[in-house]
């Protein structure tokens, strides 16, 4: 058994050496105008050797390992009573109430950094929920989601800059603009098959970024737009000194000024937006349109034969998904106070997609969990910052191999016949 | 002869140069798509790695005192093709083979992950800054009057045309004449049936990834020397462009990929020459959307019928 594995083992070890030898074992160095190479140092060589040895032995003992793996006791399954209980509406409602309560208390418990981070998590939750409609529910792979995010952010920023529009009007305008873009893009491309769609949306995201970069007369190009007004609460500002004709929050309530008020307000605002998003999507899911999305994801041909117009349904999903990205973009612009095309690169799309995929396509609790993981983990592991994107890519591959349904896959309420 | 004509010829030459390298990368997409019906998203990164290996090989050979130019370039081609072949093979083994036969989106997502992984691997190993190489091949011939504005065809451009032509001819011969090429075509027709007839389809699929990767390496070496500057992020755009070229020509069709590549290259060069070079990417993607709108199967592609 080991003899027949010897050949693949040797091959895999050689492949590892070929893969890494020249790319990592040797460094290109700029020498004046010329170019030269230096060795990367013994520690890299040792790593390469270790990787090759690992692949060699892994393949050599592959049969033993898989036998061992099978012999291992499987993961303890959640007891049926517990998983049954988790599906009861009352338990679910309690769980959501608990979650919302915890989210409400959070800014008053955590420090300023914690609240700030939580606001970021909420933005990603909003984006994840929006993309979840498109990817998770309707099954359309959208790789240019960040394009709509950018449209939302820039809509508000430009309106504020040129017309002095406030946050709340801007929010609606940004959502409408993003929806319009989603509609206009979706109209031609949604008749395409899934993987074409992925690339076209990817191209769209790039087009938006390039346009923002180059339409300097409108968007200020790579320098970005600054001084975007912060959100107000019924016309009350969160600054030390209110601008003309406005009143500031601390004067109105009669407390002394504290800069953390604004951070908390922004957090609560984001929470409100997320809750609205959650509510709307939950309602939509129970409506015929939501069911049509999922039916379409499962089998497009069957849908068509049942008289559902796939293009119209897809367009719906695409537009609604884009709208939420627009809201998120507007909030992002207001929170940062400054935006530039730098914030809207493909990697951002990939992160949002990873949140949806990691959480379990279609699952809303999954998206929330994944957004927390994806945002908090990099903050915790600052020393690994350099390796962040590397690990991120690796995780996406491994996740697809081992658990393509995600951490918490969506469950439809269903009944099983018991014999 | 009017000046504008030579300007046009110059843009055409530049476009064809870039276009032929797009065609080389596009073949990798089109072959993989033709057989397993999936987009190899990490293909652009293979091209980028090809460029890096070529620079490394040239610098290393120069370090060993080899100054003879053809030897340097041929060495770069060989080393780079070997390494990227290994990458093509590994990508297939890791990100595609375990996922074949499931939902179509899943391999696509894993390939995106692979693409991010490879890009950052190179960034960590070689740094994210630009790496420039002195021009190895200088000079060229000018077309048109000696004293006035004329079009210039550099030797580097000639080499790109020649190498592309040779590679394409070899590939066509391989696909149409050899036993393995026949197996490739059979797999593209019907994977399951080919497997039933006793052909190692897993091997053939791996072979397509390897051939695609090797062609991407050829493009990487050529474009690396043509532009003289590389960084870890060039693969993303090049992959996107080559995919556009493949779709333009009709994905799954090799002559289509070549046609699409040349068309895209010329369109870009014309946009850059007559309009603005900032918008050439926008024009390229708009072209993709337009083609998909009016002729989803591409210029030379066969219309696809969706089956239950």
Automatic annotation (TrEMBL), chain A:
Where does it localize? Cell membrane
Membrane topology qualifier: Multi-pass membrane protein
Arranged from A to Z, the UniProt key words for this protein are: Cell membrane, Membrane, Transmembrane, Transmembrane helix
Q: Which Pfam families match?
A: BPD_transp_2, DUF3382
Mind listing the GO molecular function terms for this protein? branched-chain amino acid transmembrane transporter activity
Q: Where are the transmembrane segments?
A: 44-61, 90-109, 121-141, 148-165, 171-189, 196-212, 264-285, 315-338, 350-377, 389-405
The High-affinity branched-chain amino acid transport system permease LivHM N-terminal domain is annotated at 4-106
Under what name is this protein listed? High-affinity branched-chain amino acid transport system permease LivHM N-terminal domain-containing protein
Source organism per entry reads: marine sediment metagenome
UniProtKB/TrEMBL annotation, chain B:
Gene Ontology MF terms in the entry: L-isoleucine transmembrane transporter activity; L-leucine transmembrane transporter activity; L-phenylalanine transmembrane transporter activity; L-valine transmembrane transporter activity
- Locate the transmembrane regions by residue number: 20-39, 46-66, 72-91, 103-122, 155-175, 203-227, 282-301
Sorted UniProt keywords:
Amino-acid transport, Cell inner membrane, Cell membrane, Membrane, Transmembrane, Transmembrane helix, Transport
- Biological process according to GO: D-alanine transmembrane transport; L-alanine transport; L-isoleucine import across plasma membrane
Topological relation to the membrane, as annotated: Multi-pass membrane protein
GO cellular component terms, alphabetically, are: plasma membrane
Show which residues constitute the signal peptide: none
> Mainly resides where?
membrane
Q: Which Pfam families match?
A: BPD_transp_2
Q: Where in the cell is it found?
A: Cell membrane
Alphabetical list of InterPro entries matching this protein: ABC_transp_permease (IPR001851), BCAA_transport_permease (IPR052157)
Tell whether Lipid biosynthesis is among the UniProt keywords: no
What family is it from?
Belongs to the binding-protein-dependent transport system permease family. LivHM subfamily.
Q: What is this protein called?
A: Uncharacterized protein
What organism is the protein native to? Answer: marine sediment metagenome
């Amino acid at each position: 058994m080991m003899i027949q594995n010897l050949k693949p083992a040797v091959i895999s070890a050689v492949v590892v050496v070929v893969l890494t030898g020249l790319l990592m074992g040797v460094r290109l160095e700029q020498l004046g105008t010329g170019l030269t190479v230096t060795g990367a140092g013994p520690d890299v060589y040792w790593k390469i050797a270790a990787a090759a040895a690992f692949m060699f032995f892994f393949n050599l003992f592959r049969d033993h390992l898989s036998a061992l793996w099978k012999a291992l006791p499987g993961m303890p399954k959640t007891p049926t009573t517990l998983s049954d209980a988790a599906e009861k509406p009352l338990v679910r409602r309690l769980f959501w109430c608990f979650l919302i309560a915890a989210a409400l208390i959070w800014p008053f418990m955590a420090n300023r950094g914690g609240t700030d981070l939580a606001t970021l998590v909420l933005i990603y939750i909003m984006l994840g929920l929006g993309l979840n409609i498109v990817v998770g529910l309707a099954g359309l792979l959208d790789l240019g989601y960040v394009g709509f995010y950018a449209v939302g952010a820039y809509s508000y920023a430009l309106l504020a800059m040129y017309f002095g529009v406030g946050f709340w009007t801007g929010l609606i305008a940004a959502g409408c603009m993003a929806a319009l873009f989603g509609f206009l893009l979706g109209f031609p491309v949604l008749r395409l098959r899934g993987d074409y769609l992925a690339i076209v949306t990817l191209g769209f995201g790039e087009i938006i970024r390039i346009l923002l970069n180059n339409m300097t007369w409108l968007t200020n190009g790579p320098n970005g737009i600054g001084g975007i007004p912060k959100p107000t609460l019924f016309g009350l500002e969160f600054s030390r000194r209110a601008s003309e004709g406005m009143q500031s929050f601390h004067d109105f309530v009669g407390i002394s000024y504290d800069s953390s008020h604004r951070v908390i307000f922004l957090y609560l605002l984001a929470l409100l937006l997320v809750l609205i998003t959650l509510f709307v999507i939950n309602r939509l899911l129970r409506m015929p349109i939501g069911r049509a999305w999922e039916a379409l994801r499962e089998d497009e041909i069957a849908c068509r034969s049942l008289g559902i117009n796939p293009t119209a349904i897809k367009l719906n999903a695409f537009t609604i998904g884009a709208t939420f990205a627009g809201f998120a973009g507007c909030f992002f612009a207001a929170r940062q106070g400054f935006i530039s095309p730098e914030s809207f690169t493909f990697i951002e799309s990939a992160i949002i997609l990873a949140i949806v995929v990691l959480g379990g396509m279609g699952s809303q609790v999954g998206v929330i969990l994944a957004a927390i993981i994806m945002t908090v983990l990099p903050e915790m592991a600052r020393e690994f910052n350099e390796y962040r994107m590397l690990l991120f890519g690796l995780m996406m591959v491994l996740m697809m191999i081992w658990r393509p349904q995600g951490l918490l896959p969506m469950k439809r309420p269903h009944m099983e016949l018991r014999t | 002869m009017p000046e504008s004509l030579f300007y046009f010829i110059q843009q055409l030459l530049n476009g064809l140069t870039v276009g032929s390298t797009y065609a080389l990368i596009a073949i990798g997409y089109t072959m993989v798509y033709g057989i397993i019906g999936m987009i190899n998203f990490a293909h652009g990164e293979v091209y980028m790695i090809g460029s890096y290996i070529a620079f490394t090989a040239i610098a290393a050979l120069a370090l060993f005192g080899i100054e003879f130019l053809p030897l340097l370039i041929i060495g770069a081609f060989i080393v780079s093709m070997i390494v990227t072949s290994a990458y093509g093979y590994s990508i297939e083994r890791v990100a595609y083979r375990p996922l074949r036969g499931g939902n179509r989106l899943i391999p696509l997502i894993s390939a995106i992950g692979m693409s991010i992984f490879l890009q950052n691997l190179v960034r960590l190993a070689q740094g994210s800054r630009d790496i420039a190489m002195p021009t190895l091949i200088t000079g060229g011939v000018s077309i048109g009057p000696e004293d006035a504005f004329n079009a210039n065809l550099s030797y580097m451009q000639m080499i790109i045309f020649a190498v592309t032509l040779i590679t394409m001819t070899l590939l066509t011969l391989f696909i149409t004449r050899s036993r393995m090429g026949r197996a490739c075509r059979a797999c593209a027709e019907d994977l399951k049936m080919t497997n039933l007839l006793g052909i190692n389809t897993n091997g053939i699929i791996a072979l397509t990834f390897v051939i695609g990767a090797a062609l991407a390496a050829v493009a990487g070496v050529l474009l690396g020397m043509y532009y003289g500057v590389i960084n870890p992020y060039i693969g993303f755009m090049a992959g996107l462009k080559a995919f556009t070229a493949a779709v333009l020509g009709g994905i799954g069709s090799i002559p289509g990929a070549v046609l699409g590549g040349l068309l895209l290259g010329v369109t870009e060069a014309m946009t850059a020459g007559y309009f603005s070079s900032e918008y050439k990417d926008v024009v390229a993607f708009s072209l993709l959307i337009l083609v998909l709108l009016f002729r989803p199967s591409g210029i030379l592609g066969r219309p696809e019928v969706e089956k239950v």
